[in-house]
Specification:
This protein is α+β, with helices and mostly antiparallel strands. It has helices at 24-37, 79-96, 100-117, 122-138, 151-155, 159-170, and strands spanning 39-44, 50-52, 58-62, 68-71, 74-77. It has a domain at 24-139: Zincin-like (2-Layer Sandwich). It has 6 helices and 5 strands; from the N terminus they run H-E-E-E-E-E-H-H-H-H-H. Helix 2 (79-96) runs antiparallel to helix 3 (100-117). The protein is globular, with a radius of gyration of 18 Å.
């Protein structure tokens, strides 16, 4: 099989359910394909836990978010689900020109499907994430990537966050944000 295909190492296996059902196998293949196309960075302060570069090739996850959480005595790595969420969200905004809130809702459903397909409690996963959204959201932004796409924050009219990022910029703790352009 050619290496440029969606799953070069996995053989095609006939599913015993209709193709349009959400299946663990198809979600795994989708995640693998996305993971081969993006770079993950976990060394920045990212508002709301995760974001993406303006070109969509880099997914940023906040440096304070733990790599794992425990669900029913099982250690769960969380990066793959956030990468899926951010990749879907970015594609919907850029390719279909959706508003952030609509893209975010669809991306959250994809994230939830992947979490549940791995037999992880969505309630436990979401509670873990929400705990860190609050604490990271309250911290000072001291180390923000220069190419972080700010469209989600602008679409949500998060004036407080934009003001804090502008202050960090003027203090020399963050890159310039006023001159960034978003896709019309």
């Amino acid at each position: 099989m050619p290496t440029g295909s969606c799953h070069p190492l996995a053989p095609h296996r006939k599913l015993h359910i209709p193709d349009w059902y959400v299946s663990t196998l198809m979600l795994e293949r989708t995640l693998d394909a996305i993971l081969r196309r993006v770079t993950l960075r976990r060394d920045w302060d990212i508002p709301y836990l995760a974001g993406y570069s303006q070109d969509g090739r880099t997914i940023y996850i906040d440096r304070h978010l733990p790599l794992t959480f425990t669900d029913k005595k099982r250690t769960v790595e969380v990066d793959r689900y956030l990468i899926l969420h951010e990749s879907v969200e970015k594609a919907l905004i850029d390719e279909l020109d959706l508003h952030y809130l609509h893209a975010h809702q669809i991306a959250t459903r994809a994230e939830e499907a992947a979490v549940r397909a791995d037999r992880i409690s969505w309630r436990a996963y979401d509670a873990f994430m929400q705990k860190y959204v609050k604490s990271v959201g309250d911290e000072r932004l001291t180390h923000v990537p220069e190419d972080l796409d700010l469209k989600p924050y602008r679409d949500e009219h998060d004036r407080d966050l934009i003001a804090r990022m502008e202050k960090a910029e003027s203090d020399g703790r963050a890159p310039r944000i006023r001159s960034r352009r978003t896709k019309p």
